[in-house]
Write a structure and sequence with these properties.
This protein is mostly helical and about 300 residues long. It is built from 14 helices and no strands.
Length: about 300
C-alpha cells in the first residue's frame, strides 16, 4: 500500500507539471508537431531501456497479446495525450487541468456498473464531481475546447478501466509500455499525415529554427522522457498494484500543481466559477482516495480481530 502511495505521488507531480510545460512547446510549434516530437523521444528512450527484453518477448507474443496491447494503447497513450495537446490550444491550463480530472468520476461510475453495486462514498463523490462540472459550465454549456477535454476525460476513464480488466501479467510492464509507444508513434504519424492533407494549417507554426529554441527543447525533452515514458510506466504499474479507481484518484495533487504553475508562471487568473467548480471536483477526488485506504484499514482490523478471537 505504501509503495502505491509513493508511486501515486510521483505520478501526480509528473502529470501536474505536464500541462504547463507542454503549453510552452505547443504555443511555439503547434499541437500535432509537438505531440510527434514528444512521442519520438518517449519511444526512443523506452526502446533503449528495454531493447533486449523487447527482442525476446516480441518472438513470444500471441495474436491475443498484440490485440490487447493495442487496445490499451489506443485510449491511454494515443488518444488522451493527443487530445490534451489539441485542447490546450483552446483552453487555459487551469480549465484544461480541472476538466480532465473529471475522469475519476467516470471511472467510479464504470466500476459501480461493472460490479453491479454502489457505495455511499463513490455516489457522493460522483454527485460532487457532476456539481463541479455544472458550475464550470455556467449552465450555458461547454465551448469546443471544454467539450473536447470532457470527452478526453471519458476516454481516459475507459483506458483506466480496460487496463484493470485486461491481463498481461506474463509480459514485463516496461515491454508492454514500449510496444504501446511504438504502436502509438505509428498511429500518430499516420494521423498527422492524413490530418495534414485535410488541414495544412496544423504545421504552420513548425520550423526547425523554432524547434531548436531552448524553451521548446526543454519542454519536448521533459514531456517526452519524464511526462510520457516514465509516467506511462508508473500509471500501468499503479493499476496493477491497486484498482483503476484508486489509480485515478492517486494523482490528486496533479491539478493543484498544474494550477499553481499556471498562476505563477503563466499569470492565469482564477475566476470564481473556476475555483468553486474545481474545488467540488477535487473534493470528490479526496473522498475516493480515502476510500481504499479506509477499506485497507478495515481489512487489517478485521484480520487482527479474527486472530484474537
Amino acid at each position: 500500500m505504501l509503495k502505491a502511495i509513493w508511486l501515486g505521488l510521483g505520478l501526480a507531480f509528473i502529470w501536474g507539471s505536464n500541462f504547463p510545460l507542454s503549453q510552452i512547446g505547443i504555443e511555439q510549434i503547434g499541437s500535432i508537431p509537438y505531440r510527434l516530437a514528444t512521442i519520438i523521444i518517449s519511444t526512443v528512450i523506452l526502446i533503449s531501456l528495454s531493447f533486449n527484453e523487447l527482442k525476446t518477448y516480441l518472438k513470444k507474443l500471441s495474436l491475443n497479446d498484440c490485440i490487447f496491447i493495442t487496445l490499451l494503447a489506443i485510449p491511454n497513450i494515443f488518444l488522451v495525450p493527443l487530445i490534451n495537446n489539441i485542447s490546450l490550444a483552446y483552453l487555459s491550463i487551469t480549465k484544461a487541468t480541472i476538466l480532465v480530472y473529471i475522469m475519476p468520476c467516470f471511472v467510479s461510475i464504470m466500476v459501480m456498473i461493472s460490479e453491479k453495486k454502489s457505495n455511499v462514498i463513490s455516489v457522493v463523490a460522483t454527485l460532487l464531481c457532476l456539481s463541479g462540472i455544472t458550475v464550470l459550465s455556467g449552465l450555458k454549456g461547454f465551448s469546443f475546447g471544454e467539450s473536447l477535454m470532457v470527452l478526453n476525460a471519458f476516454i481516459w476513464a475507459i483506458g483506466a478501466f480496460m487496463s484493470k480488466k485486461i491481463k498481461l501479467d506474463h509480459i514485463p510492464m516496461r515491454v508492454v509500455v514500449c510496444i504501446q509507444m511504438i504502436i502509438t508513434l505509428l498511429m500518430t504519424l499516420v494521423t498527422s499525415l492524413i490530418w495534414g492533407q485535410i488541414d495544412t494549417s496544423i504545421m504552420n507554426g513548425f520550423s526547425f529554427n523554432t524547434l531548436m529554441k531552448m524553451p521548446v527543447i526543454l519542454s519536448v525533452l521533459y514531456v517526452g522522457a519524464i511526462g510520457s515514458a516514465l509516467a506511462y510506466y508508473l500509471w500501468f504499474t499503479l493499476i496493477k498494484l491497486k484498482s483503476a479507481e484508486f489509480t485515478s484518484y492517486a494523482t490528486l495533487l496533479s491539478p493543484v500543481i498544474s494550477i499553481v504553475m499556471a498562476v505563477t508562471l503563466f499569470n492565469e487568473e482564477l475566476k470564481v466559477t473556476t475555483m468553486i467548480g474545481g474545488t467540488l471536483i477535487l473534493l470528490s477526488s479526496c473522498m475516493i482516495i480515502i476510500k481504499p485506504l479506509f477499506e485497507h484499514q478495515n481489512k487489517t482490523y478485521s484480520g487482527l480481530k479474527r486472530k484474537i478471537s
